[in-house]
Specification:
This protein has helices at about 15-25, 55-65, 65-75, 105-120, 145-150, 160-180, 200-210, 220-230, 240-265, 275-290; strands spanning about 5-10, 30-35, 80, 85-90, 125-130, 135, 135-140, 155-160, 190-195, 210-215. It is an alpha/beta fold.
Length: about 290
């Protein structure tokens, strides 16, 4: 299963889109809130059910202790997004000032993502937040650059509006170059279109010179629920956003598979240091089924 990183030029619905994809997946799935500017799902969709004792910041200290400590901490800091526990969240930072502590932790967390995707067959979605560049490259503190570099797919989330396309147009080439020089290749870059505005998918692809790999409808009712929590709207499970998100997860898996075949990637060997992550998750899933 792919590791898919979502980011944007400016607020374009990255978190809501990532959450919709995670909830709509037909497979076990995980959303990692890796936005250095801070996570919003804890206070929004979860209505503060997950306290500050859970989340990304605590993994930095664990990584400095040992790989095994990181594996255990990672499993312990996942929060269930459904009753069955098949969809989980790694809550993000509660304070942007915490981002500096994660500089050396991102590569290890990237490895964890790929272990879960390849060995435990999870759909992995990373909320990477807003793009921040420094001298034409991803900012080392204001972005989770190593995670983006190693993602199977990197989706720039855009809306079909002139404003959104104008902001995104100046980022496509630097981002593609970044992925070519430091990542898995420039062809990892694609677009996730939020169908809000006059421009359709083919027009957006032409304007930004990048493929639209999936599209989600502008669904204010469901979008507000995913952003703010509370009472789900009527027909939530069959809402346009979730229905299209299910299709989008399949399209993204197909795109990642095509990339792998075209580039003849060898399977990424599982890192033995991260085996604890897989073992812990299998144990948790076994208890849930029991």
């Amino acid at each position: 299963m792919p590791v898919t990183a979502l980011l944007s030029a400016k607020s374009s619905g990255v978190t809501t889109s990532a959450l919709a994809l995670t909830l709509a997946s037909k497979r076990p799935s995980l959303l990692a809130e890796f936005d250095p500017a801070g996570g919003t799902i804890r206070a929004g969709f979860l209505h503060s059910q997950a306290g500050a004792g859970y989340g990304l910041y605590h993994l930095a200290a664990a990584e400095r202790t040992s790989p095994e400590a990181l594996a255990n901490a990672f499993a312990n800091h996942l929060w269930p997004l459904d009753e069955a526990g098949h969809r989980k969240l790694l809550p993000g930072l509660t304070d942007p000032a915490q981002a500096a502590a994660l500089g050396r932790t991102w590569p290890a967390l990237s490895e964890v993502m790929h272990v879960l995707a390849e060995e435990a067959e999870h759909d992995i979605f990373v909320d990477a937040g807003r793009i921040a560049l420094e001298a034409g490259h991803l900012h080392p503190t204001l972005t989770p650059a190593p995670v983006i570099h190693q993602a199977d797919l990197v989706l720039l989330v855009v809306r079909g509006t002139e404003q959104s396309l104008t902001l995104a147009r100046h980022l496509i080439d630097p981002l593609r170059t970044e992925l070519s020089e430091h990542g898995t290749g420039g062809d990892a870059l694609g677009l996730l279109l939020i169908e809000d505005g006059p421009y359709r998918a083919h027009q957006v692809a032409d304007a930004l010179k990048a493929p639209v790999l999936a599209a989600l409808p502008h669904d204010p009712g469901t979008g507000h629920y995913l952003a703010s929590g509370g009472q789900p709207p009527r027909g939530y499970g069959h809402s346009p956003l979730l229905r299209h998100a299910r299709t989008a997860t399949e399209q993204l898996e197909a795109a990642a598979s095509r990339r792998s075949i075209q580039q003849q990637y060898a399977s990424r060997p599982a890192n033995a240091r991260m085996a604890g992550v897989l073992e812990r998750l299998v144990q948790v899933r076994g208890r849930e089924r029991g």
